[in-house]
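Shift notes (night). Ran Acyl-CoA dehydrogenase while the centrifuge was going.
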Amino acid sequence: MSESSLPTAEQLRVEVRDWLRHNWTGLPKHDDPWSSSPERIEWLEQVLDAGYAVPTYPAEWFGRGYPTDLAAVIRQEFAAVKAPGAGQDKYNIPANTILKLGSQALKQQLLRDFLSERARTCLLYSEPGAGSDLAAVRTTAVEQGDHWVVNGQKVWTSGARTADYALLIARTDWDVPKHKGLSFFLLPMKQSGIDVRPLVQITGESHFNEVFITDATVPEHHLLGGEGNGWRALQTALAYERSIMGDTGRASRNRSRADDLIALAREHGRLEDPAVRQSLADVVAMRELNALNNARAKATAAQGTSSSIMSLGKLAMSRILHAEARLKTELIGASALLAGSENPEADDVNFLALNAFFTSIGGGTDQIQRNIIGERVLGLPKEPEADRDIPFRQARRS
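Came back to this:
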């Protein structure tokens, strides 16, 4: 779309507000985060057809070819009325990955379903022996005619029990260095040979699973980015995941905001405590700094680009969540030793403290983010990797 044919921000804002006023009536409550209600799917399809779901995408793929500043106007108006569906060109990992790396046939087959949530996805990356070093995965994919046959094990997979597809990193060549022998696939999950077993977290929830794969098949055209280019394809998908996890604007359960902490300090008579006030100021400053850093990263990263700066936001959000958990625990004092529904405040605080570790580990550990920042942002020397340049078949196995 040429600049002359673009609407102004104010024109677009009026358009979106008018559309929402005539179409948005709310959605019934749906407590399962791993499935989508029929009403939600129907609404997301309306948003998609209006061009608001992925406005930066090309018109042929449900977008409008808008620049990021106009896309932001749409997100703001949807957020103002608490309507879902906009901004998926920033946060929909499978859709964005397919748009960047998928074939025309694959985009025609699945892009709409991913954007409307008719098809749900999970991420099959980490393995018991390859979590922090994803280049060392040992799940294999062997080409057989018009499909690939996959065998291996994955772990820490969210949503695997209900997913229709999975983004999968697997080894397709054992005779080249580890980063060069990987390929990236879109694996159909609803088939024999895939066994999903839930893992119980320290919070008592079971958001994660281990997945055992035995002779599962992947159609040839579900290979993303070409054979042997899996590491580069994986970085594209990880950039979106880290953007989500580092974004202060996307709240998760019980994630406290600065004003909640201030109210809690006031309620417990601690707001005038100089040490508490300093801790509150630190949290507010970290949140503001992270928001500015995220804005910088998103302004400099092109659609589908793996931005190392995203690691700063991801690492910062981890630090913020831990700082808020520590402060909440300090504010409620000895009652933090209590738990259960009869102690809702303590239960909330303890959940926050335990759940903060999710961001420290999921999407790449804090240690991995520090390595990325040190090497790719600050230009520091890389850590030595004895197995980086040898055929993976020769690499030491744990």
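Strands lie at 121-124, 140-144, 147-158, 165-171, 182-188, 194-199, 208-219, 223-224. The chain is about 45% helix and 15% strand.
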